[in-house]
Design a protein that fits this description.
Blueprint lengths: L1 H9 L10 E8 L2 E8 L6 E11 L10 E8 L5 E6 L10 E7 L3 E11 L2 E11 L5 H4 L1 H14 L1
């Protein structure tokens, strides 16, 4: 049993870092823009979108921009607008905005960056899975005690 636990500890586990996944990485007019989403596989409901802006020359983060998000559902045309700020982000190098996506499917993302009077628009897509039922999301926690009892017996 002890060897099994040691072997499990040596297995490579995925690094989650800040819990986000890269949604979009591109450069536009002297900027490198990286958009992250949390959770890594978003479902209908709350989603956190974070944006990292960097200068193309030296990769320094830009902390003085005005960042807006516009999402539009391809299926129903539902729209979500949000203003991303550094105040809402845990990592103060990022601009973040919590949004709520009302349905599953593909959403078109338009990111607008306004800095020094120059406006840049970056587009991308976000695939959203259907919301999971509460019982389905906790099945592992529910099944763990009976499995341990059976294994112990």
């Amino acid at each position: 049993m002890r060897r099994l636990l040691i072997m499990a500890g040596l297995l490579p586990w995925p690094a989650i870092a800040d819990g986000g996944a890269v949604l979009l990485h591109t450069s536009a007019n002297g900027l490198i823009v990286t958009v992250f989403r949390t959770p890594s596989r978003p479902t209908a409901g709350p989603v956190d979108v974070s944006v990292l802006l960097q200068k193309r020359e030296d990769l320094e983060p830009l902390l003085d921009a005005d960042v807006s998000l516009y999402l539009r559902s391809s299926a129903s045309g539902a729209e979500v607008r949000a203003h991303a700020t550094r105040d809402q982000a845990q990592n103060k190098l990022l601009y973040a905005a919590p949004i709520t996506l009302v349905e599953a499917g593909e959403w078109q993302l338009t990111l607008t960056v306004l800095r020094s009077g120059v406006r840049r628009e970056i587009a991308g897509a976000l695939n959203v899975a259907p919301a999971r039922a509460m019982v389905a999301s906790y099945w592992g926690y529910i099944a763990f005690p009976p499995v341990m009892i059976v294994l112990f017996a």
